[in-house]
Amino acid sequence: MVDLVASYGGTPVPGWWDRIRPHSLGWATARLGDGTLVGFVNVASDGGDHAFLIDTKTRGTHQRRGVGTRVVRFAAQHAQAAGCEWLHVDFDDHLRSFYFGACAFEPTNAGLIDLRSMPRDEELPVSS
Ligand SMILES: CC(C)(COP(=O)(O)OP(=O)(O)OC[C@H]1O[C@@H](n2cnc3c(N)ncnc32)[C@H](O)[C@@H]1OP(=O)(O)O)[C@@H](O)C(=O)NCCC(=O)NCCS
């Protein structure tokens, strides 16, 4: 995984996958014949009908060959088979054509709070 993330200029965090994995409903990978990891996506879930697609990654040398689309499709099929009814994803603007186009996600109402910049309780103004 470290090698895969480094391959597209990402910042690998050793131990990241071991930490995330217990919270995963499942994950999909694409590999070359020799076992080299070229594609990955993780699916988390609420244990019910909602699944969340996270950390889609394609090896830098293998991007724009349909690998990402394929692993996302595979993950969606298996989330469906696991009983999930909805698959959520969020992404930066430049990936709209990947998720809305190639992967067939539909635009919807969604909300997000950046918790990194949200004031903590002690920083909130005290009302009298
Ligand atoms: C996003 C990512 C997973 C796409 O994987 P991929 O295997 O290259 O995707 P595909 O080959 O299946 O792409 C299918 C289509 O999606 C669109 N697309 C894919 N990557 C794109 C990009 N970086 N910018 C704009 N459109 C893109 C294109 O329309 C593409 O079709 P085309 O190659 O015929 O133009 C890959 O770029 C990646 O690993 N990026 C770094 C990690 C990352 O940002 N992950 C997303 C987390 S939300």
What can you see in these coordinates?
The chain is of the alpha+beta class and 128 residues long. It has a single domain, classed as Gcn5-related N-acetyltransferase (GNAT) (Aminopeptidase), CATH 3.40.630.30. It has 4 helices and 4 strands. It has helices at 2-7, 16-20, 67-81, 96-102, and strands at residues 24-31, 37-45, 50-58, 86-88. It has a 4-stranded mixed β-sheet, covered by helices on one side. Helix 3 links the parallel strand 3 (50-58) and strand 4 (86-88). The protein is globular and about 65 Å long. The mean pLDDT is 95. Coenzyme A is lined by residues 8, 56-58, 63-69, 91, 94-95, 97-98, 101-102. Residues 8, 56-58, 63-69, 91, 94-95, 97-98, 101-102 line the site of coenzyme A (COA).
Task: Write out key terms for the chains shown.
128 residues, alpha+beta, Aminopeptidase, four-stranded mixed β-sheet, 4 helices, globular, binds coenzyme A
How do the strands and helices of this protein lay out in sequence?
Blueprint: H1 2-7, H2 16-20, E1 24-31, E2 37-45, E3 50-58, H3 67-81, E4 86-88, H4 96-102
Parallel strand pairs: 3-4
Antiparallel strand pairs: 1-2, 2-3
